[in-house]
Write a structure and sequence with these properties.
24 strands, disordered N terminus, alpha+beta, 6-stranded antiparallel β-barrel, Pdz3 Domain, single chain, 2 domains, Thrombin, subunit H
């Protein structure tokens, strides 16, 4: 049995046993990590979290045609492609409508089996658009969202605009991509697969890339089921994509919190609802194993034009890149006036009186250009810096620190 099938069965069976043990019905607002609040109560949420009460069951809506995606995924260049790539939307059976809309636990063994089967179908559809991302030594994930190859990821995976990336598809094939813009304040990043790398149809047109069906993060509620996919630790042919099934614990304006356990290398991968619509992108792990943070997909929609244009801005609270020096631009160069004791610059070998010539791939012309170059890095990134010290060139490697 595939890894994700076994995982789903264990999780669903656990929830089902809880449901059978309950003498009365339990609403989705009482469910956190699959455990009804009767068993000791739900854990406290951080300040500012939104715990939304369950809504009433929604009427059944059967789409008459293709699922309409968010406007930001409507790529003007898609007409040049033979779009045979489909999406990830899997219409849930009628019996699962309330679980899809509001969360909760299966009420019967038959519903449990339907829920597991729906999870399996969504996971199978997600394999083709969930990619492993390699940028230099750094590894993460991404999700293809258009037939022309736009890829959503986390900003800290994309690093900065204009970087070359290597993407590994579910069949092991590798393709190249280029990073575009990013909103670092919520950890949202964008890439695009370089053209000319996919197969062509009989008419000579490039076949479109498999892509996710886009949902919205506007009406998400705590207790709703969700499916996380990714390639933690990088692509492994024998293992393939890893699937985790869980539920939304809290909804914030800038992030979702779920109990879908993320591990190293998952960042940038997709989070789907039970109908296979993309609702968020994995960001990072919080202070607890059940504190898994995701970027709501609507943030990509809100800033699509800026990100598509290669703009980058902001930083996550607590993840501001720090070098640890002060200086000036006297003489038209970047002069180091003070180095903070124990700072990344101090540990990397930068000294007072040094002049910064290059920072990574960026030529430094004054202290402002150095500040701009530092702001384009991520905490933990190792950067090669060329200095001029007493008239002689000096190379140092500095690991960027982080501040509030």
């Amino acid at each position: 049995m595939p890894f994700h099938d076994t995982l789903g069965l264990r999780l669903f069976a656990s929830c089902f046993l809880f449901a059978l043990a309950m003498p009365h019905s339990v609403s989705s607002a009482q469910i956190v990590s699959g455990v009804p609040s009767t068993f000791g109560g739900a854990p406290p949420l951080p300040p500012g979290a939104i715990l939304v009460p369950p809504a009433q069951a929604l009427p059944r809506v059967v789409p008459s045609g293709p699922v309409t995606q968010n406007a930001f995924a409507q790529d003007s260049g898609s007409g040049a492609l033979a779009d045979q790539s489909g999406g990830t939307f899997i219409e849930p059976p009628f019996e699962l409508e309330q679980l899809v809309a509001t969360g909760g636990v299966p009420a019967s063994l038959g519903q449990l089996r339907l829920l597991q089967r729906q999870q399996q179908r969504v996971a199978a559809a997600a394999e083709a658009c969930t990619v492993s991302v390699q940028i230099g030594p750094a590894q993460g994930c991404g999700v293809i969202i258009t037939s022309t190859g736009y890829v959503l990821t986390a900003a800290h995976v994309a690093m900065r605009p204009g970087k070359s990336a290597m993407l590994t598809l579910n069949d092991g094939r590798t393709v190249t991509a280029k990073t575009l813009g990013m909103n670092r304040s919520v950890d949202a990043g964008l890439m695009k697969i370089d053209p000319g790398q996919n197969a062509r149809d009989s008419a000579g047109r490039e076949i479109g890339w498999p892509h996710a069906s886009l949902g919205t993060s506007e009406n998400l509620k705590s207790g709703m089921w969700c499916i996380a996919t990714g390639h933690p630790g990088g692509y492994e042919a024998d293992r393939g994509m890893v699937t985790r099934v869980g539920r939304i614990l809290a909804v914030y304006p800038d992030r979702l919190v779920t109990d879908c356990a993320l591990i190293g290398g998952d960042s940038g991968g997709p989070l789907f609802d039970l109908s296979g619509k993309l609702i968020a992108v994995h960001s990072r792990i919080g202070n607890d194993v059940a504190d898994n943070l995701h970027v709501p997909v609507d943030h990509y929609n809100e800033h699509w034009d800026k990100m598509q244009g290669g703009n980058a801005w902001g930083f996550l609270p607590g993840f501001r890149p720090v070098l640890g020096i002060r200086g000036n631009s006297e003489g038209g160069i970047a002069n180091v006036v003070r180095v903070g004791p124990g700072s990344p610059a101090d540990q990397g070998g930068i000294r007072e009186g040094d002049q910064v010539v290059t920072f990574g791939d960026v030529d430094i012309t004054d202290f402002e250009s150095l500040k701009s170059a530092v702001s384009d890095t991520m905490p933990g990134e190792r950067v090669k810096i060329w200095l001029r010290r007493d008239g002689q060139p000096v190379k140092v490697i500095v690991e960027i620190g982080r501040g509030d």
